[in-house]
Amino acid sequence: MSSTLPLPDAWIDSLFRKMHGLYGSLWLDRWRIGEEAMDGSDAGMNNAKAIWAAALGIYRDNPKRISKAIEFCNTKPFPPTLPEFLELCRQAPDEIAQVALPAPIDTAAAALRLEAAVEAVSKPERDHLRWAKRTDLSEQAKKNIMDLVEGVDCPSGRDPRFKPIFMEHYKAGRIKGGRANSLAKSH
Description:
mainly alpha
């Protein structure tokens, strides 16, 4: 048996009045048995109140859960059973939480950041030949540069943009060998 105290009578009476207000006779007829108790009230209603008070006693120190469960009932077309109401209480937050809003946005700073981003993306300053200008060229990149200078396997022929790039690599000793020597002499 649980050591939790039941809800006070005033609380359970208030709960039953609110549920009666929401559901009318659907609520009352669920508990009434038509048998009169000694105080003139319905014995079935008294029994239901006692059972609900005992079960909801676990929320005695947190009545906001019960209040939130009642609020949830505003959207339900039929009155809840005790297990359903207990589940609504479990789903309710411990406290009414303040929704944390994000920090205000500095619109002027955000506009400047957006403007800078748009400008950076829209500028045609990208160097498409950067791969060929790197100092740490792979062997394949070296071959590709020489092919572009000679026009080998190139449908458009020689690409004059690669001649100064090739010569810089050749003079720095990054591209060397027989083919590179003859290519440097011919250009």
